[in-house]
Amino acid sequence: MLSFSRSSILSYLLWSLLFLTFASSNGVLATAKPKVVGFGYKLVSLVQLPNGGGLVGCLQVKQRTSTYGPDIPRLRLFVKHERRERVRVQITDADKQRWEVPYNLLPREPAPPLTGGKVTGAPFTAAEYPGEELVFTYGRDPFWFAVHRRSTRQTLFNTSAGALVFKDQYLEVSTALPKDAALYGLGENTQPGGIKLRPNDPYTLYTTDISAINLNTDLYGSHPVYMDLRSLGGRGVAHAVLLLNSNGMDVFYRGTSLTYKVIGGLLDFYFFSGPTPLAIVDQYTSMIGRPAPMPYWAFGFHQCRWGYKNLSVVEGVVEGYRNAQIPLDVIWNDDDHMDAAKDFTLDPVNYPRPKLLAFLDKIHAQGMKYIVLIDPGIAVNNSYGVYQRGMARDIFIKLDGQPYLAQVWPGPVYFPDFLNPNGVSWWIDEVRRFHDLVPVDGLWIDMNEASNFCTGKCTIPKTHQCPIPDSKTPWVCCLDCKNITNTRWDEPPYKINASGQTARLGFNTIATSATHYNGILEYNAHSLYGFSQAIATHKALQGLQGKRPFILTRSTFVGSGAYAAHWTGDNKGTWENLRYSISTMLNFGIFGMPMVGSDICGFYPAAGKLEELCNRWIELGAFYPFSRDHANFASPRQELYVWESVAKSARNALGMRYKLLPFLYTLNYQAHLTGAPVARPLFFSFPDFTPCYGVSTQFLLGSSVMVSPVLEEGATSVSAMFPPGTWYNLFDTTKVVVSRGGGAPVRLDAPLNEINVHVYQNTVLPMQRGGVISKDARATPFTLVVAFPFGATEADAEGAVYVDDDERPEMALAEGQATFVRFHASVRGKAVTVRSDVMMGSFSLQKGLVIEKVSVLGLEGTGGKDLAIQVDGADADADAVATSSPYLAAGGGAKLQGEDGVEENSKRSVSVEVGGLALPLGKSFTMTWNMQIEA
């Protein structure tokens, strides 16, 4: 939820004034003279540490300036090839310890301790410091450094064009870039131009509660990492750069250069060699933490609304979905369940505990789940046990020695300090107490940037009540506050473009001169708040009943994906916001947070016809990794059953999602192992196909299922990009697109209740029958869809499925608790083979999971014959593999569509279905037959 005052005219005028002030003070206006910020450093010594410990050097400032403060005179340079594919370059003060992301939050290899510039080791005089894949090079006077590939000498990063600047509150470094580099990342922000970064757009990183409807601004998360994809000789080659720094920063991308301007901390770069996008996320998440495993039910459909004012409304929503036969797995409460918006409480009138427990018993018996919201702000209330226990343990962030006073939904609040070990243990205890009160199935942590309706140093007013009783605008500050202007933390010398309008760093958040545990400044740790809360919440839930946690967080940082899922915040019910949601979702896959989605139909109300928009949004949102409808109290009711046309679209799109649940859950497993995003840009699978580098209106699920939604009002068709190869429509596999890779779009029919979803050649796709709840859907028989190239006579296809007991916190293969099956298919002339390799099949056998059908697409011929099936290497007994007699049937000719838009009926390619089966998923099988091909 967002404080609505941000969208007020008063705030707009204030931000406009702030921007003009920023433009003048930072030299943005055309009339201002550019300031000399720094003259760089020279390298005065460089040694190599023993036993592969890396290089350590000493840098000395060349000439001091006073712009943004005095230069730090001596810097320590540290370079290490930490892994074959990764090199770290760290630059910090040689004499004093500076702030860096705490190692207990983000575990990683430590840098050597500071020794005041005195380092023992062998003098290093070589021009290059090579690793297995990446090479570090440097210049001495002035100091610069570069990183290039060892194999091709392709330069990835080169700072020689600009001076290194290192002051206490201002760090600057630049790299040159080729014009044809395609960059992605540097978020979170809503990018109207799509996923590919645009030169001269603003990229500011500082966690802020500013609605996602604001474009090109720093939003809820800070992810200072980018992926660079270049086409070299027809081959797409990627690398990534992370600047691990939690301080606020502006990043200026000019097309041929990229400049960081950071207001604190140190320069701690990590370079990842790739060379493919998938390799990048593997290397990146191996360092920052693999994505957290999600429970199976989390991939079902979720429904929420801020404004379910009592339990009977929630019960009615669940009944509405069931009556409309629309899938629903999880029902959510925003803050409506709370007593006066206080965390870990229940409203005794509208959500009485006995009735809520009875409701939860009912939905839990059906397999449904229940999740509620909690905000970090703890109400200042002497009769409130959560507050009392927090005060007793002294766990709140402080300003001038007292808990920092802020205002959120309950009124005056204090913010827990999740960098304080006592704060973490207190939070874990409060989660346990609440779970004893209400057996929730997950937690939603919101407003954790942290959001504050007030700014500055505040006191509880003596002349009026706060919160104001029955206020219609509880997001308006009612505390007595004054701006803090007497510290360099609240008024730093360089003003980043915070909130897109150069707002104060403490604007509507915690004052940056406030302190955390051990004197840590909010100025340094601000963007870590949501990350640290997610870690504490994960610890709390993991300790409850030994189940796999599910946490949804708004504010994120590097590494948040190891603990939580994310939704893209407060969007609006408009066609533009529908389109923007794709880019934000794809960015978070790059950031290592694959479980992500946007509020379906929009959080804020908007003028216009919501019905058509909601049709198209559920068709798209049904294929978000995290699929949830959510709106605020001012919006018209937008549950999917409200309109019959939307209900029809929901049954169609969510019906396909629930059939694809085993595929999505397997992608979840692969994400947990390698970081591979669930939803991916097209270039992840087709890095050599340059026309797809900027595609932001379509996306892939895994490597081979492509979603092409309608994103324009009134449209009944969609123009879609198809990378080279054969693509089959999953809703009607006789509709086939064969792309020659020319880059021309293909016009696809898309009536109101339909979305185009295609599966790519060379794929074996596991599906089930579906249902209206994932508990039932996951027990139904499997169908394997085998997609060969159109008219194939020699081809291969592969796929996999992972099934487990998703109650376990760990997501790993273990006998009796999980099964992993690889599927292989081939066609060689007339001979077709489909087989499986099973790892740890006992779990699937215990659950009675079976394959009932195999559907093979793209074969040449008129039919099949000579079907033979073996199970576990032996000829199968008919009773062991079939519910009735296995049959082999051929479908009709495909309807072929190419880039020229011409359709034709083709007899050259057919689908072959092998049905009537009951093949145990937990046993390896081999199935063969011969195609009948006319001369």
From TrEMBL:
Keywords: Glycoprotein, Glycosidase, Hydrolase, Signal. Coiled coil: none annotated. Residues 291-667 form the Glycoside hydrolase family 31 TIM barrel domain. Residues 96-247 form the Glycoside hydrolase family 31 N-terminal domain. It comes from the Eukaryota. InterPro entries: Gal_mutarotase_sf_dom (IPR011013), GH (IPR017853), Glyco_hydro_31_AS (IPR030458), Glyco_hydro_31_C (IPR048395), Glyco_hydro_31_N_dom (IPR025887), Glyco_hydro_31_TIM (IPR000322), Glyco_hydro_b (IPR013780). CDD domains: GH31_MGAM_SI_GAA, GH31_N. Gene3D superfamilies: Glycosidases, glycosyl hydrolase (family 31), Golgi alpha-mannosidase II. Residues 1-25 form the signal peptide. One of its GO terms (molecular function) is hydrolase activity, hydrolyzing O-glycosyl compounds. Residues 675-765 form the Glycosyl hydrolase family 31 C-terminal domain. The keyword Phosphoprotein does not apply. PANTHER family: ALPHA-GLUCOSIDASE, ALPHA-XYLOSIDASE 1-RELATED. Belongs to the glycosyl hydrolase 31 family. This is Alpha-glucosidase. It comes from Urochloa decumbens. The lineage of its organism: Eukaryota, Viridiplantae, Streptophyta, Embryophyta, Tracheophyta.
